[in-house]
Each structure stands twice: as C-alpha cells, then as structure tokens.
Amino acid sequence: MSRNRSRARDVAVVSRGIRVPLEADLRGPSALLAYTADDPGAVVMDLTAAQLNGLPLPRRHQGDWRVHLGRPRGRNRARRRNVVGRVMTFREGEVETLEGLRITSPARTWLDLAIRLSVDELVVVGDHLVCEHGSEAPVPRRAICTVADLEQTISVHSGMRGVKKARAALERVRVGADSPQETTLRLLLVDHGFPEPVLRHVIRRPDGKGVVWPDLAYVEFRVSIQYDGGHHASTGQYTKDIRRHAVTEELGWREVRVSKEDLSGFFPRALEKIRRALVQAGWSEDTREAS
Do the Cβ atoms of 78 and 41 come closer than 8 Å? Predict the structure, then answer.
C-alpha cells in the first residue's frame, strides 16, 4: 500500500502499521488478526481473550475494548495505540488459534483474569467454563474446559500474580450453573449459612423419566430453585413456567422462583424466599446459626 493510499479518507488508522478500510465489516477475531500476524509469538490474552470467547465479565470491564497482547519472555512488551502489552510465559497448550488468531486457552484466560477480578467474579467465569449438561437435558451443553484444566493451569504457574486468588476461586467452582446469576445465588446461599444447593439434579417421574431440571436444588428437602431471567417474561415461556411449577408440585417438590430483583440489596429477597421454603420442608435454622 502506498503512503498516499494509507492516508486516504476511506481508511482508518487503528494503530501503528495497521490500516482498516472503513467499509470493512471486521468483527471478532478477524478484527484483531493484524496484531499477531506480523508479531511472532504475540498472543491475544486477558480481557480481550475473555470477550472473544463470550466469558461473563463484570460490567466495569465489558466496555474495555483495548487489545490485551502478550509476548513471550525475552521480548519487550508491545507498545502501540489501544494495546495493553505484557511479557508472559506461555506453557504448552495455553495458546490456541481462533479463526487464525493466536489467543490464550480458556483455562489460561481464566487464570490471567485473576489479577483484576474478585474471587466471586472468578467463580462466575469458572462456572461458565466448566458447565455441562448431558444429552437428557432440554439443552445439552459441553464444557469449554474442565476443572482439571483449571487445576493444571494453576499448578504450572504457582508463582504467577493472582494465583492465590485463583486457588480460592477454584475451591468454589461447580459444574452445572447455566448463568452468572445462578452462580451468584449459590454463593449467596453458602455465604449466608445455607446448605450448598445441588446443581444438575433431575426431578423424575415414578417411571424414571426426567421432567424438571432445577437450576439449584435441595434434594433432601425437595426444594427446587429456578432462576427466571429476562426471557421468562415472554408469553410462551410464561406458559412453560406455569406447567413446570405444576409438575414440580405434583411430584412432591416445592418450587422457588427467583428473579434478578430478588438478588439485589444487603440481604437479598431470594434468601428469605428460599429460607421459608426450606423451613416449611423441615430444615432447621439452628443448623445455619451453628455453622
């Protein structure tokens, strides 16, 4: 490209040496290929890798569209407009390609996030990564990575910044949470002295067929907890929710429905809803006070 062409009005200067035609519809990994194509060993990482993989980040980080770029040790960190450069050690298997873009693996991305997320926020991301549901579930889902992958990544970076926080978060990561709100609710319950609810439990008919999949469940007390996200306001979903509630009750379970508003405040309303259902089912609050 000639100098005059690179300065034309229909070309945007993204960063040093990088020009993008204004009519180009570049999205996702393709928009970042130039940052690694001519930079041997450079890897998209941290918040950028998390955003490209759709990981649930706190709102304060969702608007950070700077390019987080790691280079291997022995090289200087990247210095260019709109780039946050770091010098890192990447172990075998920690760098993958996404549509041609070099990017950190999900497990390594999770560990890198430990320097900027709280323990609970790191648990939310961890739950998202390891969540899976079998073929029997209404919406089967495969894990992005496993708990063992997270453990392995921590073990080979024992001296890395944030690793202590990552270890604390990993102890609270569980398989089966479909949304950040479900993870938040589980952590709230445990932190307020409630028993830890079960994820991925299936309520079955007498013939063994699975018919209800609670988001969280207290199996001993037959209490089913369902988180109602925004899509539950639709007419079709509302009808399904009524049917699900009836089936749950017919099979001898209590259903507690929790909304986004129930999770806010110093003592979220969701805790009182669940406490009431557990007490009615025979749970003793003395157990919580003793713990």
Answer: no
Closest CA to 245 of 253, 136, 273: 253
Q: What integer pLDDT is reported at residue 28 of this predicted model?
A: 75
End-to-end CA separation in angstroms for the chain: 69
The rounded percent of the chain whose pLDDT value lies above 70 is: 87
Q: Are 126 and 106 in contact (CB under 8 A)?
A: no
Question: Among 99-103, 104-108, 264-268, which range has the highest average pLDDT?
Answer: 104-108
In contact, 52 and 31? CB cutoff 8 Å: no
CA dihedral sign of residues 129, 163, 152, 95: positive
- Picking from 44, 41, 40, 24, the residue whose alpha carbon sits closest to that of residue 32 is 44
Q: Chain centroid to CA 183: how far?
A: 9
